[in-house]
Amino acid sequence: MRQTLVAGNWKLNGSKETTKQLLEGILGGMGNVKNTEVAVCPPYIYIPQVAEQLRGSQVAWGGQNMCAQESGAYTGEISVQMLKEYGCKYVIIGHSERRAIYSESDQDIAEKFVAAIDSGLIPILCVGELLEQREADETENVIAKQINAVLSVAGIEKFAHSVIAYEPVWAIGTGKTATPQQAQDVHKFIRGMLQKENAEVAQNIQILYGGSVKSDNAKELFAKTDIDGGLIGGASLTADSFLGICTAAN
Fold first, then answer.
1. Res 45 pLDDT > 80
2. Is 187 a catalytic residue?
3. CA 235 to CA 208: how far, in whole Å?
4. Distances from the Cα of 221 to the Cαs of 39, 61, 118, 237, in angstroms?
């Protein structure tokens, strides 16, 4: 049986003091979290602080992005080894904001995916459609294109060491949420795609939902057969709301 994973994506938020307070709040409530993996992905500059504060706890941490290159003239980038040196377990790859704002291509994302796995990090591969694509009934085509771009470079075997996050772009930060059944339908489609390549990988991979998950809708979402947790944005910035989502899977 797949274990639920709840990962917080803090995006461009926080300070030394708010990070300290947020982590204290999360750690203080982890006794109520059962059978759920929990992780946080802070801005790069706070990873050392997070690593120090979370070391020895049941909460893992990761990066929000990475460079596919190991080193060199790549100003402003962070390598896999830099993330690993501070104990990161996860790294978010291909978030819709990276695709849209920073023009990351499917090829860029595939290369990062491979580099992360080859270096021992677990990539959380984000896929999802725009509102106009959903309204045009293009959701499955968009998702298939995004996943196939990675499959063609990485191969199915590497997916055994990854997590996928389905994030309908129209439901990120808008307050809109796909219904549990809408989310389940896409998760089932993703698992079915992988099933055609390797049944064991498809059965075991965690597929998270990432579209305005809140403590009041998490339980119903996580109860769906193919939804294995959430990639949480705004609700991960306060301990109570984040813990409410984490405990929804108990």
1. yes
2. no
3. 15
4. 19, 23, 32, 20
Selected catalytic residue, list 97, 111, 129, 167? 167
**Is 4-247 in CATH node 3.40.50.11810?**
no
- The answer for residues whose C-beta is within 8 angstroms of residue 184's C-beta and 6 or more apart is 224, 225, 226, 227
- The whole-model pTM stands at 0.96
Q: How far apart are CA 217 and CA 236, in angstroms?
A: 14
Say which of 95, 104, 111, 187 is annotated catalytic.
95
Rounded Cα–Cα distance for residues 25 and 44 (Å): 21
Catalytic status, residue 161:
no
- Reported as a single tens digit per residue, the pLDDT across 74-127 is 999 999 999 999 999 999 999 999 999 999 999 999 999 999 999 999 999 999
